[in-house]
Amino acid sequence: MRALTWHGKFDVRVDTVPDPKILNPRDVILKVTSTAICGSDLHLYDGVIPTMMAGDILGHEFMGVVEEAGPASTLKRGQRVVVPFTIACGHCYFCERQQFAACDNSNPVENQEISEKLYGHAMSGLFGYSHMTGGYPGGQAEYVRVPFSDVGPVVIPDGLEDDKVLFLSDILPTGWMAAKNAEIEEGDIVAVFGCGPVGLFSIQSAIAMGAETVIAIDHHPRRLELARGLGAKIIDFTETVVGDALMEMSGGIGPDAVIDAVGMEAHGFAPDNVVEIVKQNVLPAQDRGHALREAISAVRKGGRVSIPGVYGGYLDKFPLGAMMQKGLEIRTGQTHVQRYTAELLEKIGNGEIDTTFLISHHLPLEQAAEGYRNFHDNQNEWTKVVLKA
Ligand SMILES: NC(=O)c1ccc[n+]([C@@H]2O[C@H](COP(=O)([O-])OP(=O)(O)OC[C@H]3O[C@@H](n4cnc5c(N)ncnc54)[C@H](O)[C@@H]3O)[C@@H](O)[C@H]2O)c1
Ligand SMILES: [Zn+2]
Ligand SMILES: [Zn+2]
């Protein structure tokens, strides 16, 4: 089959690779119909996530049609499903608590030591996201093996086309969980750092949960316009001192909650960021915390900090003093996708949520490398790329 494979920094290629096979009775093989490139994939493309190997198949946002079902799967050949990027067994200590992204059974034992050393505990499995998270081949491919197919995949009713439901695999629940983690209440003022797909869905979710004012921060005019279209006020961080503007826009108090939808590769010419860009290029497991520092500094005393943005290693100059002295709450994590899919599918079905507005480009899988290059280099125009396998 054809698949998008990783070969190093800025080097991804569509290659011919062996077809996937059923390995466990609970598996299915999916024929992929649509798959998207995520901001998280850019961290792989930039080579800042450790434990990638040449030839790894990328892709954790995908959907398709069941081609072959293992004997213990609850799915049937021909069913159309969206697959959560977090691989979860459904029965372990964590899955029973709906902490699916912490599943203890989905990362094969031979890969567990890496994250055990780095984080103190082994991570769960994720599709197409390094050997630290299981080394699972991803879904930017013609076919993909889906483990625990009786737990994760969401069966899609006829009549809902791919573009409306594909983002249930990751970014829609991620924006939703980011807003839940920010504990939004009616009347809140919320600042969202980053207007990529995750930031945009965080804005949409915060408004749906009753936020009175959402302030969106980025530097790409088109992405800021999409945020404005959702009802947010906007700040271009290249034109304004973000902290001052947020104070002014929140009556001198600071936002009730902040959401960091930027993650470990913040942009900007601030001194802390310039130093961290250099460090990230020469040392492993280094994060850039510029947006997170700004968010923590801006949020009001007693406020909430939600971090959907991905961080992978060690962050210097973390403002723990501000966290402690202002009495902040902080919540973060890979999204527990399976917890939210049923609720969000219903909202898509009844028209409460639209997910299609951010798609800027559809490309055939064969042009996936071009999609990566543009989603990376031309973020203003390329807001979300959907690949058609
Ligand atoms: N927690 C999860 O489960 C989960 C799931 C999906 C994505 N993510 C992460 O969420 C983050 C965002 O994903 P995305 O797909 O939207 O990525 P993206 O790269 O498309 O968007 C990031 C946006 O942040 C903006 N930005 C950069 N520096 C900034 C700054 N200093 N202040 C304000 N804005 C700034 C960029 O201009 C860009 O528009 C990534 O780190 C991604 O890995 C996490
Ligand atoms: Zn993603
Ligand atoms: Zn589990």
Kindly summarize this structure in a few lines.
With 389 residues, the protein is α/β, with parallel strands linked by helices.
Question: What is the overall number of helices?
Answer: 13
Largest beta-sheet details: 7 strands, mixed
The figure for the number of domains is: 2
Beta content: 15-25%
List low-pLDDT spans.
none
Number of strands: 18
Structure classification: alpha/beta
Report, as a whole number of angstroms, the end-to-end distance. 11 Å
Any idea of the CATH class of the largest domain?
A: Alpha Beta
Mean pLDDT: 96
What is the CATH superfamily label of the largest domain?
Medium-chain alcohol dehydrogenases, catalytic domain
Helix content: 25-40%
Overall shape: it is: globular
The CATH topology of the largest domain is what? Quinone Oxidoreductase, Chain A, domain 1
Specify Rg, calculated over alpha carbons.
20 Å
Bound molecules: nicotinamide-adenine-dinucleotide, zinc ion
Shape-level CATH architecture of the largest domain = Alpha-Beta Complex
Can you describe this structure?
Helix 5 (171-181) crosses helix 6, helix 5 (171-181) packs across helix 12 and helix 8 runs parallel beside helix 10. The chain is of the alpha/beta class. It has two domains: 2-170 and 335-388, Quinone Oxidoreductase, Chain A, domain 1, CATH 3.90.180; 172-332, NAD(P)-binding Rossmann-like Domain (Rossmann fold), CATH 3.40.50.720. The protein contains 13 helices and 18 strands. Strands 3, 5, 6, 9, 10, 17 and 18 form a seven-stranded mixed β-sheet that branches. The chain has a six-stranded parallel β-sheet with strand order 13-12-11-14-15-16, with helices on both faces. One zinc ion binds next to loops.
